[in-house]
From TrEMBL:
Reaction it catalyzes: tRNA(Asx) + L-aspartate + ATP = L-aspartyl-tRNA(Asx) + AMP + diphosphate
Site residues by UniProt (Important for tRNA non-discrimination): G90
HAMAP family (alphabetical): Asp_tRNA_synth_type1
Subunit structure as annotated in this protein's UniProt entry: Homodimer.
Top-level class of the enzyme under EC nomenclature: ligase
Designated gene of the protein: aspS
Protein name according to UniProt: Aspartate--tRNA(Asp/Asn) ligase
Role: Aspartyl-tRNA synthetase with relaxed tRNA specificity since it is able to aspartylate not only its cognate tRNA(Asp) but also tRNA(Asn). Reaction proceeds in two steps: L-aspartate is first activated by ATP to form Asp-AMP and then transferred to the acceptor end of tRNA(Asp/Asn).
């Protein structure tokens, strides 16, 4: 029978009680983690968000009625206990913050009872994720998930305080806005007042934060909710959170400086990790050439080597045809993996095919210095030796080669080096390696649309020395864009924006957007730019990804209180769901029936 807490006031969270409180009266409240009945004594581990505290029920202290009530306690009952803090009579628990003390209960109230939970409320349980997400309310009680959510709150609070101290103003931007092109798919919201018209949920506050610069706010920040209707994976959700910022009268170095200091502050305060400043910088081209990725993981080597020159005249058609088609041949050295069984090498080949490779060529260097290779018969001994030398191959190494268009070779070997590093145990989650990647291409070619598209967005400023190539050679234009990368994950990105009307017009032309189309899509921003626009630049972090790495988790679902699953549904609330016919009518929406339903009606 649930009791009231009237007349009681909690004095401490569980782990706020310490040996300094010995002899004091305290009132603590929380959930029963475990009950141990030793006959004349009952021990209860009481849990709240701070941790565990041992409660001792002794019939001689609490009386028969209180002792009998303690006997009925089960896991997850919510209780309130008044008692006196005492040094533990039994062994000290070194693993607990409160391991040297206990509270001798003098009164007990059962505030609510609990059914047996579908899984134990403990750290690192093997329960399937879909069960945990269905009962997320219980899952969120688990100490490891709670520490993630608490860390997330701490990161947000520290960020706000740090940026406020740097002169940033926190300004909210609209959730209901206009659908614009050049990004992912929008989530649309139908308007009841304007039948047939739709708002879009923001993919980012991009256009609004640029308008805030036009409005003279100088330095803006927001912890902003963003929405993208795209296919999900471990570090993607349909709704996510950005630490968003924009600054006026700045260039690349100014944005990088304030953000390096922010990151150093967060990692010191939250994890007591010192981030060495300045953070290393690398151009996009160098990152691709050395690591096959624009978000390279620097915790290990295994860099790419371009061996195109060495094999251009060899007898191996896979290599030569890739070069004839304007591609390249590159390789990586998996140190010490030369004895990898053929089955595992085949698995790597299949992995590579998932990234666009037609296959992988390999050389395993035996301990006696001889080679075992998939393509040796097409090569001379000198060519094989040259390849091994180019990749610093030693006895016991495994050399892997990809040959194709540059983009595919980079993708394949970039993913393969991380896969191998994982298998080789080289990915230490306690090792935080930051990197700025700069000078991204302004455009990338879309085979699907048969035109150049903006690699970031249409308002990104080209590098000054490349402006003359906007019309003549768009593929060679570099952008004043920068990403901040941590351990192979892009945690943030931004750019200097275009503030001159003539450059913006040339940019739209390069993207194949007519003036009319540009005005239709971005007119409100372009109009704002007519009335004095300052040079400005910005950056946005994925808060979920940042906290995921700080908390050493593999999925952002572990750092979001109520995440969605892969098909963008919520197992807890069963969203999305059907809605009332009346609601649809008010919104002038008619749901198309499934084709199968229509056919069955015809029959």
């Amino acid at each position: 029978m649930a009791e009231s807490m009237v007349g009681l006031k909690r004095t401490h969270r569980c782990t706020e009680v310490s040996s300094a409180n010995v002899g004091e009266k305290v009132t603590v409240m929380g959930w029963v983690q475990k009950r141990r009945n030793l006959g004349a004594l009952i021990f209860v581990d009481l849990r709240d968000r701070s941790g565990l505290l041992q409660i001792l029920f002794d019939e001689n202290v609490i009386g028969k009625e209180g002792f009998d009530k303690a006997y009925t306690l089960r896991n997850e009952f919510v209780i309130a206990v008044e008692g006196t803090v005492n040094k533990r009579s039994g062994a000290v628990n070194e693993n607990l913050k409160t391991g040297d003390i206990e509270v001798i209960a003098e009164s007990l109230r059962i505030l609510s009872e609990s059914e047996t939970p579908p899984f134990p409320i403990e750290e690192n349980i093997p329960t399937k994720e879909d069960i945990r997400l269905k009962y997320r309310c219980l899952d969120l009680r688990r100490p490891d998930i709670q520490s993630n959510i608490i860390m997330r709150s701490q990161v947000a609070t520290l960020t706000r305080a740090f940026l406020a101290n740097e002169g940033f103003l926190e300004i909210e931007t609209p959730m209901l806005t206009k659908s614009t092109p050049e990004g992912a798919r929008d989530y649309l919201v139908p308007s009841r007042v304007h039948p047939g018209k739709f708002y879009a949920l923001p993919q980012s506050p991009q256009l609004f934060k640029q308008m805030l610069m036009c409005s003279g706010y100088d330095r803006y920040m927001q912890i902003a909710r963003c929405f993208r209707d795209e296919d999900l994976r471990a570090d993607r959700q349909p709704e996510f959170t950005q630490i968003d910022m924009e600054l006026s009268f700045v260039d690349v170095d100014d944005v990088i400086d304030v953000n390096e200091r922010l990151l150093a502050h967060l990692f010191k305060e939250v994890l007591n990790v010192d981030v060495q400043l300045p953070i290393q910088r690398m151009t996009w081209q160098e990152a691709m050439d050395r690591f096959g990725s624009d978000k390279p993981d620097l915790r290990f080597g295994m860099e790419l080597h371009d061996v195109s020159e060495l094999v251009k005249n060899c007898g191996f058609g896979v290599f030569t045809s890739a070069l004839e088609n304007g591609g390249s041949v590159r390789g990586i050295n998996a140190k010490g993996q030369g004895s990898m069984p053929r089955k595992k090498i085949d698995a790597l080949v299949d992995f590579a095919k998932g990234y666009g490779a037609k296959g992988l060529a390999y050389i395993a260097i035996n301990e006696d210095g001889t080679y075992k290779s998939s393509f040796a018969k097409f090569m001379t001994d000198e060519e094989m030796d040259a390849l091994v030398k180019a990749l610093d191959g030693e006895k016991g190494d495994l050399l892997l080669f990809a040959a194709d268009r540059n983009k595919i070779v980079w993708n394949v070997l970039g993913a393969l080096r991380v896969e191998l590093a994982d298998k080789m145990g080289l990915l230490d989650k306690n090792d935080y390696k930051f990197l700025w990647v700069t000078e991204f291409p302004q455009f990338e070619w879309s085979d699907e649309e048969e035109r150049w598209v903006a690699m970031h967005h249409p308002f990104t400023m080209p590098m000054d020395e490349d402006l003359d190539k906007l019309e003549s050679d768009p593929g060679a234009v570099r952008a004043k864009a920068y990403d901040i990368v941590l351990n192979g994950t892009e945690i943030g990105g931004g750019s200097v924006r275009i503030h001159q009307a003539d450059i913006q017009s040339r940019m739209f032309k390069a993207l194949g957007l007519t003036e009319e189309t540009a005005n239709e899509k971005f007119g409100f921003l372009l109009d704002a730019f007519k009335y004095g626009v300052p040079p400005h630049a910005g950056l946005a972090y994925g808060l979920d990804r940042l906290v995921m790495l700080m908390a050493k988790r593999d999925s952002i679902r572990d750092v979001i209180a109520f995440p969605k699953v892969k098909d963008a549904s919520c197992l807890l609330t069963n969203a999305p769901d059907v809605v009332d016919e009346k609601q649809l009518k008010e919104l002038s929406i008619d749901i198309a029936k499934e084709e199968t339903e229509e056919k069955s009606e015809e029959n």
